[in-house]
Amino acid sequence: MTTPETPQPLQFGWEEWVALPELGVPALKAKVDTGARTSALHAFDIETFGPASKPKVRFTVHPIPGRDDLVIPCSATIIDRRDVTSSNGERELRYVISSNLTVGDDSWPIEITLTNRSTMASRMLLGRQALKDHISIVATDRFLQPELSYDVYHTARMRNEQPKRALRIAVLSREDNYSTRRLVSEGEARGHTVEVINTTRCYMAINAMAPEVHYDGKRLPRFDAVVPRIGASITPYGTAIIRQFETIGTYCVNSSAGITSSRDKLYAHQLMARAKIGMPNTAFAASPHDTSNLMGLVGTAPLIVKLLESTQGKGVVLAETKKAAESVIDAFRGLKANFLVQDFVKEAAGEDIRCLVIGGKVVGAMKRTGAEGDFRSNLHRGGSAKAVRITKIERDTAIRAAKVFDLNMAGVDLLRSEAGPKVLEVNSSPGFEGIEGSTGKDIVGALYDLIESRVRPAPVRRRKSSKTAEE
């Protein structure tokens, strides 16, 4: 009969190299203290978030003494909150988390309290609860287990293989629609906390040292990312709020500059022309004496007359004859409205293609067909949609169009013409219902993949004094 082998005892010195891989901390020097019950980790910027039924905590770790420029953002589920008395007799109420401790080839779960240990020589303290039964302590030695190195923090692997952590994400939106609800549900399903913020109820404290965004009488907490869903009617104020988040350093899926330039239809067409992106012939003029010449620059009737502020097909008129075009132009001028004149792509036959571009890739495409008797294909106006296979040139055109505005998320509307794809518009706040319903693809999931890949610690440059700091 074979008896089970007794685990070989581990010997710890009074200080050992350890790792907390679930927190993204691959190397740390920890002091072993059998007089303490629970382990403690040096943490800054400790902040709770998430639902009351399952609260989480986020914090930052400076794993190398003397290197406060090296910041590891972490998050974990709170398992308890305890009164802890430190070695100098001070009592503190601390959050308690659980994480795997790795020493050499061994790994096991331990409880960790979060506290500021800036006055302590060790960034972590290992208490009795973390020491397994077969660990013996040799109080006169140190580093009896395999040694690690702080050099790992300066590698590409450290930058690219950070563990997924729970994020705090703000959705700037005034509407309770499908897109907003999907952003919330998908984010929460991934373990993130997603808060919907009404853009017009935000206000700003603008100063050099501590710029802030306030909401309903309180300063907003620090968000990891912001997903702008800015309506056309509040573009100036909405982009001002996004600029404030950018000033704070928050990752914004779409920049304020990209949203502003894509919303200005005249400027948008000028930018696309500069990038040599195909689009319908377009003309713009302010003087009423230039109506005939303006129409001549575009071509013959039928023509499209489009308000610069038009959205969802509103303010877009098809003038089937020259006389009708002149009448529409005169009417718009009488309202002192700014507008564009474009040629009508007949071969498109009332259809366009919406390409959803996320992170420089087309993640879904649908063909939209206008309602009977309507040349506009917008789904908000009763149009229908179905999945479509796009060509390589259409895919490349959509990606280039989104890149012109530096948009990480964009709905690019194309027309299929005899001369190739022509871009009608680049939408910085595309809806998700039509594209997900027609293609069956998880578009919002692709957006969260992008956010999770972008919201990570910035690469850390090695200091000249890093050797001294390590010692």
From TrEMBL:
It comes from the Bacteria. The keyword Transferase does not apply. InterPro entries: Asp_endopeptidase, ATP-grasp, ATP-grasp_RimK-type, ATP_grasp_subdomain_1, Peptidase_aspartic_dom_sf, Rimk_N, Rp_bS6_RimK/Lys_biosynth_LsyX. One of its GO terms (cellular component) is cytoplasm. NCBIfam families: PRK10446.1 (NF007764), rimK_fam (TIGR00768). PANTHER family: RIBOSOMAL PROTEIN BS6--L-GLUTAMATE LIGASE, RIBOSOMAL PROTEIN S6 MODIFICATION PROTEIN. This is Probable alpha-L-glutamate ligase. It comes from Roseovarius gaetbuli. The lineage of its organism: Bacteria, Pseudomonadati, Pseudomonadota, Alphaproteobacteria, Rhodobacterales. The gene is rimK_2.
